[in-house]
Amino acid sequence: MLRSPLLTVMVQAALKAGRSLKRDFGEVEELQVSLKGPANFVSVADRRAEQIVFAELKKARPDYGFLMEESGAVEGSDKSHRWLVDPLDGTTNFLHGIPHFAVSIGLERDGVPVAGVIYNPATDELFTAERGRGAFVNDRRLRVAARKDLSAAVITCGIPHLARGDHDLFRRELAVVQSKAAGLRRFGAASLDLAWVAAGRFDGYWERHLSPWDIGAGIVMVREAGGFVTDLDGGEDMLASGGLIAGNEAILRSLLATLKSA
To answer: How high is the pLDDT of residue 34?
Structure first.
């Protein structure tokens, strides 16, 4: 596939950060004997990957702003464009030696996500998307799944962490979705959840309390694969509200109605 210069820059940044994470991931198992060692090591790996992404993108587009998980907001002179960067989405998976984590880079233009790259260095799967140009994994075109009934659908979700989020609400939502869907999964990396919806591996996805860097790239991925993404009220306020539903049109509508009943 032919990539635009902008997407090429994003891919290069993700691959370079991914190489760093892959090296660090190989060391994690050796640190599991220490309670303190792994967490500190992963924190360093996270920051190092973010510095790599920042340097690569800054060099290519010096005027663009940034919103990053570790370093926060960096203002740019170009107020229309902002990078959304999660250098290590799935930190807990990484920490425990689970090969399901990703570098996620999204680009928003005037507040709307327009391009995304999600790269899992452990599996070497590179998901890319750009508005109007389609979504791909390792250059293979992506399409969302065609299932229309929740009773045949596998849905992924996020579970609120200890002392974060509304656990009672989640348990109600879980119960009502579980009563209607074929299966539920929780994999622990929002960017890859969205990429897997785009790839048709999951039929739908919902989660609350997400940050823009978690979902900026994935929103473009799902939409360019023929899917739909809304906030939990069916609107377009995903980046600000942190709540999100994704799937094909039929699954999204069913999932939205089901969650509202909780």
So the answer is: 46
Residues of the chain with CATH 3.40.190.80: 150-260
The burial of 140, by beta-carbon neighbours within 10 Å (0-12 exposed, 13-18 middle, 19 or more buried), is given as exposed
Q: Region 14-27: what's the mean pLDDT?
A: 93
Residue type for position 48:
R
- Token couple for 13: 């940044």
98 by Cβ neighbours in 10 Å (0-12 / 13-18 / 19+) ranks as middle
Q: Output the known binding site.
A: 69, 86, 88-89, 214
In the chain, CATH 3.30.540.10 covers: 5-141
- Pick among 3.60.9.10, 3.30.540.10, 3.30.420.40, 3.80.10.10: CATH of 5-141: 3.30.540.10
Does the pTM surpass 0.85? The reply is yes
Tens of pLDDT along 21-60? 999 998 876 655 444 456 777 888 999 999 999 999 999 9
Are the CB atoms for 14 and 87 separated by under 8 Å? Answer: no
Q: What is the pLDDT of residue 37?
A: 54
Annotated binding site for Mg(2+): 69, 86, 88-89, 214
**Percent of the chain scoring above 90 in pLDDT:** 85
The CATH architecture annotation of domain 150-260 reads: 3-Layer(aba) Sandwich (3.40)
Q: What is the SS3 assignment for 222?
A: helix
148 CB-contact burial (10 Å; exposed 0-12 / middle 13-18 / buried 19+): middle
The separation between CA 138 and the C-alpha centre of its own chain, rounded to angstroms, equals 17
Q: Please name which of 130, 104, 129, 4 lies closest in space to residue 60, comparing C-alpha atoms.
A: 4
Residue 105 above 90 pLDDT? yes
